[in-house]
Write a structure and sequence with these properties.
single chain, mainly alpha
Length: 127
Amino acid sequence: MKNLKTLSAIIVVATAATGCAGTGANYVPTVDGPVSSRWSADLAQCQQLARRHGFANAQTRNAALVGAGIGAVAGLADDDVTDTEGAVGGAVVGALVGGGAGMAARQGERREIVISCMRGRGHRVVG
């Protein structure tokens, strides 16, 4: 049963991570007023800039490592499984959850890169 829970968590987090791969960088901001003739070209360039801010950076890796450590400790506390099995399962789930949280933070940062870039190019972006 524990293996089924671990496998389910892996599938859910992997699916979510795959689905979020382009998000944030694909953000199309809302503009106050008419758009200029440069809007499309600037948006494409700003989105490309945001894509360079990768999901699997040092902060995401650190979040996964912290999650793995916390998960391993929590897995050791589980009375229904052996210490090794609980620690490994907890570490895997913790790493996935921590890494997923790190990736979600990167998504917001990518969105902000697009907004800042567009504002820097003179567009009246409100969000």
